[in-house]
Amino acid sequence: MQPDTPHDHRVQVRYKPVAPSVVVFGGLLVMGGGVTLVFGLGNPGAIGFLFAGAFFITLGVFQFIKPYCVFDPASGELRIINILGFKNSVYGAPAGERLYAYGREIIRVLPDGAHATVRTGPGRKADFDRVLALLPPYRI
Fold this sequence. Notes:
Order of helices and strands: EHHEEEEEEH
Keywords: Membrane, Transmembrane, Transmembrane helix
Protein name: PH (Pleckstrin Homology) domain-containing protein
Number of domains: 2
Shape: elongated
Strand order of the largest sheet: 1-2-3-4
Helix content: 25-40%
Distance between the termini: 37 Å
Radius of gyration: 20 Å
Strand content: 15-25%
Largest sheet: 4 strands, antiparallel
Transmembrane segments: 21-41, 47-65
């Protein structure tokens, strides 16, 4: 059976479900800043609460809609997606590296033979389990 689109074979790793708490924290900051401004408590720092709250709400929404990373088993590419969209990190074959599964970690073997691990903390465990199942095991 052929995939419907060329990207159906990719495995997306979503963020851990902390986004609701980030959105609630941002909402509390916005409410605190709004109350301070509305009741005229004479604190210009409330504007900072409004901007910080809006920033945290934006981060929380991005955690809902953007994946943490995408693994393409056909090309061996692991792309860590920047939540704000500035620059994505690309690991694996396109960068001249090899990726291996080692327990709960993803090991990068760099072109010079050095080893480095990929940060997997923000991603959901079940999604990373699917990625780890597609990678060859790392032999010491």
